């Protein structure tokens, strides 16, 4: 009787498959048994705990890439709590807290603004100077009019699209 | 006694009525057109289909090439019948032709390699050039757009351009080609070598009047995860995906609700999502005529300018 009144939700189809697959920016495959999963569609947005790719030539970024432990966003310095192109974020990388700027996004962009295949960041020190000396990937040209600390990042960029 | 009394009363009435006179108060929506007004003009005979069809029945003197509609899909209107506005469509077409008189928009297809020069106030030369393969083109009328993709420094980059954006300075087709699929978004999940093109690529010339070459390349995809369920898209330009998907996914793919075998027989769906063939002919004839006229004017202008230059040169010589 109780079961009829309050039907127990059926187990998700993905869970039955036994393999957990995330889609979108935080794509990963895990062969371990399921612990938790989300059935909502991916937002492709930079929120807390989004995984980012460090695209400058800093030692810290390279180390994280080699260890396949990508930087995770732990705070976004705006009121929305969603990071967009050119926003400043705080990331956790190799057990350290670092500030960084978003320089490329995977989500769909407006016309004439490039969309990248990964979510890119450039690490900066607390005083605003970039940690690396060179950026390995192209930077959106629409970020060129940014002022303040962002000009330091533009000065180490190699290409603009 | 009665006359002055009446005067006073009249004055009083006039004054009190002044308060109720309608005044024009600027409000928030005063600069917009009411919805029912728009609706009225939508139902006016000017924007009815019958008239258009009647016009079409009259024999036309110009012969439009059959492939013209495939070269210019941007002139085709939005197919959803209850959201169409024929007056707006006509005005849009006029605007598009005006823009085409200024900038040369060449023939291209999904799969062609293109270069776009964009006005960019932040760039040192006030210009920004991007080369890439066209992976999609869509949008109706003035809102037609195309997406270019390239891999620069091992990083896939895609840019969407509005075709009639006045910021576009130049559109070049470096290699005119077609692919097997109407959209190439699957290149996102393929190795980057399939979407890498040199930024200083030189244009490949194509014989005029020759058929557009078809690039029948089959792309080898990366293993999953993918950004979409490509096994359900019936892609032609991709090597078989059977090695990448599970048995369960193969079974799911054949499910009637996913395969939708009835869709190709659904005449109502076809009517809802496509435009009548006769109307397309009519639009294309109109566009073809206007285009020829604009080209003639352009040639004349060039001829006049040339004459002026010759005159100037002669004067300088004297």
TrEMBL record, chain A:
SMART domains: Ribosomal_L14 (SM01374). It is found in: Mitochondrion. Keywords: Mitochondrion, Ribonucleoprotein, Ribosomal protein, Transit peptide. Pfam families: Ribosomal_L14. GO terms for cellular component: mitochondrial inner membrane; ribonucleoprotein complex; ribosome. It comes from the Eukaryota. Belongs to the universal ribosomal protein uL14 family. HAMAP family: Ribosomal_uL14 (MF_01367). This is Large ribosomal subunit protein uL14m.
From TrEMBL, chain B:
Keywords: Mitochondrion, Ribonucleoprotein, Ribosomal protein, Transit peptide. It is found in: Mitochondrion. Pfam families: Ribosomal_L19. It comes from the Eukaryota. Its main location: mitochondrion. One of its GO terms (cellular component) is ribonucleoprotein complex. Residues 297-318 are annotated as: Disordered. Belongs to the bacterial ribosomal protein bL19 family. This is Large ribosomal subunit protein bL19m. It comes from Sinanodonta woodiana.
